[in-house]
Amino acid sequence: MQIQGLRSGYGGKPVLQGIDLEVGKGEIVAVIGRNGVGKSTLMRALMGLLPATAGQILIDDKDVTQVSPHKRARMGIGYIPQGRDVFPRMTVAENLAVGETLLKPGTSPDYDRIYQYFPVLKERASQRAGTLSGGQQQQLAIARVLVGRPNIILLDEPSEGIQPNIVQDIARNVRDLNRELGLTVLFVEQNLDMIMLLAQHCFVIDKGQIVARLSAEDLNDPDAVRRYLAL
Amino acid sequence: MLEGLFAFLFQFGDAFAFLVLSASGLAIIFGMMGVINLAHGEFIMCGAYVTVTAAQAGLPLPLAIACGSLAAGIIGIILERAIINRLFNRPLDTIVATWGISLIATQGTLILLGSTMPGVGTPLGSFSVGDYSFSEYRVVLMAIAVLLMGGLYLLFHRTRYGILARATIQVPHMASALGVNTKVVHSLTFGLGAAMAGLAGGLYAPTMTLVPTMGTAFIVESFVTVVVGGADVFLGTAPAALILAFIKSGMTGLYGQLFGLIGLLLTVIVVIRIMPRGLSGWLLRGRE
Ligand SMILES: Nc1ncnc2c1ncn2[C@@H]1O[C@H](COP(=O)(O)OP(=O)(O)O)[C@@H](O)[C@H]1O
Ligand SMILES: [Mg+2]
To answer: What topology does CATH give the domain A2-229?
Structure first.
């Protein structure tokens, strides 16, 4: 996925001021930055939920900048928003069933595998999603896109409002998924643990622009990362 | 005594069937799209007219009713594509637009088909319990109302369309980010609501006079049911219809038809004061 000069925002309010970044196949890339710098806005713009006012988004070298969200999703993008956005009055199983919409024709969902990663979802298959804890909702939101076998997932602050031990669990699951299925991961995060556990390299965003790129070595130094988060 | 009880139960069932059948289309469009459809009565009228036309052309009544429902549904889908979806997220404009559609439909029918149309007689016969005589067709309508609720429940909980429609109303942007074409879902949902209205029209066509304004005969009851029930078809419309049917048949039995209607309207006023989001909003409080 390549993003060039992407600008977007809300109505008259520009937020993204020309974002350039690139995510290679099978990579785990983080976008980090303080609150309110435009991380979630970037994710929404990548998904097509916000229109791009300038710039380009290329997926597998195809220009998808003007493609509507549901078509973009069916090209193999799985979006896991900040706040999870599970369907609160539907059961866990029904939430997962919605994810089947992402499947390419001729493929079928592999629920056994998904329940292997997230056993708690199997236990709670007939429970309403709105009654799950934050960590369980996060797992459901991830599982819901995995049902559709995406090539790339966009993960917005997966650690937000979740206990530290569950953060570790989710990081390990995402790492396994990346290794076993070759899943490409672009995630947004402020939580130092999650960034260090998961990211292979990372972009720093501030005021709607990418201001730095950190390599794997840079990510080994927590103090350096912390400095960028406090930028 | 027993005869009186049966007579009351019959009135109650009859009122329940009327409330459920006339409200379900309105409730689906409101509950699953957030659209207040002021042309609801005209979809009912359309269903009735098509049903009677088909029956007079020689189709058996059940098939004729299916035609009426289908015709209203197709017109609903066309209107959604042409007008309603352009007003997405503009509820007040949608109300004005559907009101406009309603006026055009009644006046258009008046101009094209005249002020009245010969109907078909009420099918089936009657049976008596004690001194009272009851229409068998009304019993069929009660059974259909119950089956319709069950059928709609299955549709929204067991079919792919139903699951995607519920996802779309609960978190629209997330449904589309998961690949759901929400525009198609909205068109189908509006079509379904219109088809349910058409079904009500078809089912009641044999019992009433066909005039272009016949939809208004259903409007009060259907809006009352949806307002009392709130946005959930199953937790709202069905219990609201039960309660309202009880009040309406009780008041009608005791004091006559006018008081039946007054009872309905008083109930609405009381319910809106206590539960602004209707029965289903109250039942589901704190669960969002
Ligand atoms: N729905 C919205 N409408 C208008 N402005 C918004 C909306 N969501 C976020 N913003 C604004 O856009 C900016 C970036 O927000 P966001 O992308 O959510 O930041 P981050 O995810 O990095 O914390 C903020 O100034 C925020 O106030
Ligand atoms: Mg955010």
So the answer is: Rossmann fold (3.40.50)
Residues within 8 A of A (CB atoms), B 11-70 only = none
**B287 and A130: CB-CB below 8 Å?**
yes
Name the average pLDDT for chain A.
91
A12 has which bridge partners? Answer: none
Query: CA of A89: how far to CAs of B74, B163, B171, B246, B287, in Å?
Result: 30, 11, 10, 30, 8
pLDDT tops 70 at residue B115: yes
- Specify the pairing of strand A201-206 against strand A209-214: antiparallel
A107 touches chain B (CB under 8 A): no
What's the pTM?
0.91
Host domain of residue B186:
2-287
Residues within 6 Å of ligand 1 by CB: A 10, 13, 15, 33, 35-41
- Mutation for testing the A interface, residue in B174, B180, B234 having most A CBs under 10 Å: B174
A101 interfaces chain B, CB cutoff of 8 Å: yes
How many angstroms does the Cα of residue B180 sit away from the middle of ligand 2? 24
Look at chain B and report how many structural domains it folds into: 1
Q: Among B177, B182, B149, which Cα is nearest to B166's?
A: B182
Q: How many CA atoms lie within 13 A of B246 on its CB side?
A: 6
B92: domain CATH number?
A: 1.10.3470
Q: Give the ipTM.
A: 0.92
Residue identified by tokens 């059940």 is: B62
Inter-chain residue contact B171 with A144, CB threshold 8 Å: no
Q: How confident is the model at residue A231 (pLDDT cuts 50, 70, 90)?
A: low
Predicted confidence (pLDDT) at residue B229 exceeds the cutoff of 90: no
With 90 as the cut, is the pLDDT of residue B2 above it? no
Q: Where is pLDDT greater, at A98 or B221? A: A98
